[in-house]
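To whoever is on call:

I kicked off a structure prediction for a single chain this morning and the downstream step that reads the tokens threw a length-mismatch warning. I double-checked the sequence; it's 174 residues and nothing unusual in it as far as I can see. Pasting both halves so you can look.
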Amino acid sequence: MDLIRSKFKYIVLVAFLAFIFNSSVLSILGVRSSEVMYDYDVVVAMCLPESEICPYSGEIQVANTGNLVANNLEFQVASMPSSIKVSFRILDLVASSPREKNPIISVLDDGQGFTVNGLVPGAMVIAEYGSQFSYEEREMIRNISVSGSGDSALVYGDPHGTIFGRFFSSLMFW
């Protein structure tokens, strides 16, 4: 009975951590064979009416948290101003497992998103957006939204939190 109570405490703790890290509890407790997580964060510096130019930066994280290579991923960014510049970084979610190859990334023709092919398990693509906008455009920046589609199950949440939660939950079954 004590073993059941202690495992229950760990499950509650993992669920709590999942809530804090904005991840799916199901994603933490089990690995889907074909799962891609994505998250979007935007930072708008203080923009006052007397400001002529206001800085903006945003980041979309796309990570393969499953066991299979993810292909045909497309991420649309709605309400993005045309002046925004984008750059990409490729990272490993877990440093002890280097990726086999880099994915192929391309910006959509309209500049309102990007595609990713060949995203191996444990790899993450970070799209970093940055620009300047006028005070009148500030509502457009606040209304930017991200949607994704692809052959893998797409889950909105923090990939780092999910990997941490999976590691932590694996410890309770030692």
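Update from on-call: the warning came from a stale cache, not from the record. Cleared it. Sanity check on the structure: The chain has four helices and nine strands.
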